[in-house]
Amino acid sequence: MKIMFRILRSLKKHIQKKIRKRNIDKYGSVGKNVLLQTTMKNISRPENIFLGDYVSLGSDIVMYATNQSKIIIGDGTIIAPRCKLLTSNHNYDTENLKSIPFDNINIVQDITIGEGVWLGDSVLVLPGVTIGRGAVIGGGSVVTKDIPDFAIAAGNPARVIKYRDKSVFLKLLQEKKFYRSIDWESLGGKEFINKE
């Protein structure tokens, strides 16, 4: 019985790997060593989504690009599960509004996420936003405006709380030491520190 479960598990992994490979080919571009844990069911217009090297996309991510808008994700960026990146919004507040609460017009704007950014769990990024390199966005935040380089932001709407150490970030960036570029197992695996 154990052998049967091992065979089934191995077969499942093999099928998932083939599906991921097929899905990677649908994106506008995909860098090296990219981890896609999300499915294509929540990705629109993948040909207008561009992923840098060492990018990690968690499970259940929604990325909504259109034929007139794109999503660009820089090297080394990690996007946690359940994040949403939306490049389109309904027209709800113009002089020529044709119906309420909104009409048939969609307003589209690109989303750009810089290098080495970390979006925590369930972050919502709205159209036209640029998140600067090295930024960290706290879980559950709603990003409605641009976030500067090295900023740590959180909330609804997301506001800058403080900034990361720029010199440390730039040194690691220059050395291309992204989380996904390091063999953590060879260094003893994941560490947990009780911060009091």
Automatic annotation (TrEMBL):
Domain of life: Bacteria
SUPFAM superfamilies registered for this protein in UniProt: Trimeric LpxA-like enzymes (SSF51161)
Keyword Repeat: yes
Keyword DNA-binding attributed: no
Transmembrane segments: none
Family membership noted in the UniProt record: Belongs to the transferase hexapeptide repeat family.
Pfam families noted in UniProt: Hexapep
InterPro entries assigned to the protein according to its UniProt record, in alphabetical order: Hexapep, Hexapep_transf_CS, Hexapeptide_acetyltransf, Trimer_LpxA-like_sf
Database matches in Gene3D superfamilies: Hexapeptide repeat proteins
Protein name in UniProt: 2,3,4,5-tetrahydropyridine-2,6-dicarboxylate N-acetyltransferase
GO molecular function: tetrahydrodipicolinate N-acetyltransferase activity
Alphabetical UniProt keywords: Acyltransferase, Repeat, Transferase
